[in-house]
């Protein structure tokens, strides 16, 4: 199960990364959010 807190930590860590790595991190966040949403009943 994907933990929302872990996803929030990934989002918070974006500002610590070099600008050229932001896109990759947001792609990772997007993938994890999709996985978390797919685990919610009724969606």
Radius of gyration: 12 Å
* Computed structural class: mainly alpha
The low-pLDDT segments are none
Distance between the termini: 15 Å
Total of DSSP H or I helical runs spanning 4+ residues: 2
Succession of helices and strands: HH
Roughly what is the average pLDDT, rounded to an integer? 90
Largest sheet: none
Strand percent estimate: under 5%
Characterization of the model:
It is built from two helices and no strands. By secondary structure, it is mostly helical. Helix 1 packs antiparallel against helix 2.
Supply database-style keywords.
43 residues; mainly alpha; 63% helix; 0% strand
Task: Describe the structure concisely.
With 43 residues, the protein is mainly alpha-helical.
Q: What topology does this entry show?
A:
Elements: H1 4-13, H2 22-38
């Amino acid at each position: 199960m994907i933990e929302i807190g872990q996803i929030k930590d990934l989002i918070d860590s974006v500002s610590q990364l070099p600008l050229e790595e932001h896109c990759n991190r947001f792609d990772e966040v997007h993938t994890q959010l999709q996985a978390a949403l797919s685990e919610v009943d009724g969606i």
